[in-house]
Amino acid sequence: MRNPLTGALLALMLSAPCFAADLTPDQSQARELYAKLISYKTSEGLGQVPVMAGFLADEFRKAGFADADIHLLPVGETASLVVRYRGDGSGGKPILLMAHMDVVAADPNDWKRDPFTLIEENGYFFGRGTSDVKDGIATLTATFLRLKREGFVPTRDLVIVFTGDEETEMATTRDLATTHRDLIDADYALNYDGGGGTLEEDGTARTFSIQTAEKAYADFELSTHDAGGHSSRPTPTNAIYQLADALKKVQAYRFPTMWNDTTLAEFAAEGKVAPGALGASMRAFAEDPQNQAAVETLAADPGNVGRTRTTCVATMLRGGHGRNALPQSATANVNCRIFPGTSIEDVRKTLQEVVGGNVEVTTIGSPVSSEASPLRPDVVDAVTRAVHTLYPDIEIVPNQSSGATDGMYFRNAGIPTYGVGGMFMKDSDAFAHGLDERVPVKGFYDGLDYWYVLLKDVAGKR
């Protein structure tokens, strides 16, 4: 039997930084914040987001931020936090700095390490939210605290916006964009939960992406209905079979190939460094998005298919009411990631045409879509300068995300939004939402330097 004290000591050793003496005071503070944030179980239904937000609000107060500039805004069981760093107004309208406090659920029984303890091991930080996106909460908070200590006076207000349910309903984001629009009115927003740097598998920096657009997220319910009956008397109109046939049609259907200025620029840039046939297809698509061979290669790659079209995939099933009864109904959830410029209702109509009149297709909730943000030279130049302090001369690439973030609500509210991350990592280290989520330790500390430079650039005196 393992000695409990031995286990506790081992956990403490793993959670401690390997080279604490090498950390600067600013890095040490950021790491302590990071560890504290990971310890909060901020997945849906646990009520911990307001608790974590309260902790952060106290940290800002202790640093000298006025109560009038700290807003903890409850929405149901969750909350958002808005903190204003006041400037002298000479630089124009405020800039928003975004990240989300919630995480997806994590069962400690499934993980090799406690998901709610920040573990530093083999050059990585492990824990739920280390990459999505409590590293952003820690980085933005630590950067505000550092700038405040140094007496920095920005030329415009800098406004932190930490939302509380990005992974689920985004109700806090809608609340901010509507009820509290006065708190977030801004020239533009910089979103930590988007963009960022990509490393080759050997650790060489490949590119840094600025997310200017994202696909809309929408769920559709496919339902079939039948009179049912006794299972000993099967009928040809079985609701489950009808639904299965419909789902196979959805699986086989391919939405039209689409592109925009962002995706063409992205493929052109990434095609220069991506290896083999994939890189060649990226370059060919950027030159001619109707090149069918390039389209097929990109469509066969899960990391790129979503960048070329709307995608829809079945994600959940339920049906029947008894083991010995013919089903009276069957239902599936089909999740779609919709290319900018395509309406959500048009996608619903397309699905209806694909599955036929015997299947009912309904939109779940009130999904939102948004157009791409303009590629502003001032934002691109500032991000480029900050990135090049870490990796000189790497290419800065526009990006359209196949996922969805809070940014879509701010774009819809008329606030151009740019995902500018700050974390550099390998594709093979992307474990967001999965087991043993992790980020490179170096990536976290480099991100602190990057955001410090970036904020002083966009809101400093020239």
UniProtKB/TrEMBL annotation:
This is M20/M25/M40 family metallo-hydrolase. Residues 213-355 form the Peptidase M20 dimerisation domain. Transmembrane segments: none annotated. Keywords: Hydrolase, Metal-binding, Protease, Signal, Zinc. It holds the Pfam family Peptidase_M20. Residues 1-20 form the signal peptide. It comes from the Bacteria. The keyword Protease applies. Belongs to the peptidase M20A family. InterPro entries: ArgE/DapE_CS (IPR001261), Bact_exopeptidase_dim_dom (IPR036264), Pept_M20A (IPR047177), Peptidase_M20 (IPR002933), Peptidase_M20_dimer (IPR011650).
